[in-house]
Amino acid sequence: MKYKAILADLDGTLYRGSVLISGAETVYRRLANLGVQWLFLSNNATSMAEDLAQKITNLGLPVSTHQVINSASALVREIRKNLLGAPIMVVGSQELKRGVQLAGAKISDSYLDAQIVVVGLDREFTYEKMKLAHKAIQRGALFWATNLDPTYPEADGLSPGAGSVVSAIATAAGKEPDRVFGKPSTDMADIALERLGINSQECLVVGDRMDTDVEFAIRAGMFSVLVLTGATSLEDISRYAFSPGYIIESIATLEKLF
Questions:
Q1: What is the pLDDT of residues 163-200, one digit of tens each?
Q2: Are 201 and 180 spatial neighbours (Cβ–Cβ below 8 Å)?
Q3: How far, in Å, are 46, 97, 127, 137, 178 from residue 134 at the CA level?
Q4: CB of 136 closer than 8 Å to CB of 89
Q5: Which residue, among 4, 7, 14, has the nearest Cα to 252 in the 3D structure?
Q6: Is the pLDDT of residue 154 over 90?
Q7: Which residue did the predictor score with more confidence, 17 or 244?
Q8: In a 3-state reduction of DSSP, which class is residue 250?
Q9: Of 9, 122, 187, 213, which one is the catalytic site residue?
């Protein structure tokens, strides 16, 4: 078998909002029964990996926390390796703050001592939060982003993503993030390959975005599959200087590639 593992995106690929893509459960079980390993990779950092695993399970597709890697997972890994005890300002969800704290960092709301400003999707984003982040970055704090997705798919269409919050702070601070953990950056690929114990050429990345999923696969040396159930349409593909390895209607038809 050419591919030993599938690295599948979540929003727009496995589900939309709180509804599984039709046929996703069937193809998951069939390929798993053939010995294909499944991991789920998401730029979503409003939840931790265990919360996303529980969401998938609640939707009817039982998965373990070990099978889910998100941009918060990559951030947590970096904190545990190099930033224990560091004061970090988080503009993001309460779940992201909790994850940063559990990883061993100190949550700081003061621009005077924050060593790093981490920015993700914040549904309670305010001018005051932007102001504090701006002041911290101006004082020399590193500017990290969970991801740069401008939008994310929900059941009723696209909604503003983490990239919209990151852009606001970047405009105020006059600089782009020093580091981005989500796709197309390859931090999650490193974690995935460690867990799978295989090489990149044996992995198939499945996702709905050219600028995150497909580019991520190219950077990581993996094969890519673009599904048309999320953010990218056939008409959008020509705008990019690169192409997906395969294009399919939805994850439900993935089995034909094996």
A1: 999 999 999 999 999 999 999 999 999 999 999 999 99
A2: no
A3: 21, 18, 10, 5, 14
A4: yes
A5: 14
A6: no
A7: 244
A8: coil
A9: 9
Give the pLDDT score at 67: 98
- Where does 87-161 have alpha helices with state H? 94-102, 127-138
Number of H helices, E strands in the chain: 9, 15
Instruction: Please choose, from the candidates 197, 198, 204, 194, the residue with its C-alpha nearest in 3D space to the C-alpha of residue 8.
Output: 204
Q: Given this chain, do its domains 5-43+183-257 and 83-180 carry the same CATH topology?
A: yes
Superfamily of the domain at 5-43+183-257: HAD superfamily/HAD-like (3.40.50.1000)
Catalytic residue among 11, 122, 208, 213: 11
- To the query of whether residue 109 is one of the catalytic residues in this protein, the response is no
For the segment(s) 83-180, the CATH number from 3.90.650.10, 3.40.50.1000, 3.40.50.970, 3.40.50.20 is: 3.40.50.1000
Beta strands 15-16; 157-160: pairing state: unpaired
Q: Please give the model's pTM, rounded to 2 decimal places.
A: 0.94
Catalytic status, residue 11: yes
Domain ranges (residues) in the chain: 5-43+183-257, 83-180
| Percent of the chain whose predicted confidence (pLDDT) is above 70 | 100
* pLDDT per position as a tens digit, 117-153: 999 999 999 999 999 999 999 999 999 999 999 988 7
Sheet containing strand 246-248, strands side by side: 68-70, 37-42, 5-8, 203-207, 223-227, 246-248
Confidence (pLDDT) at 17: 86
Q: How far from each other are the two terminal CA atoms of the chain, in whole angstroms?
A: 7
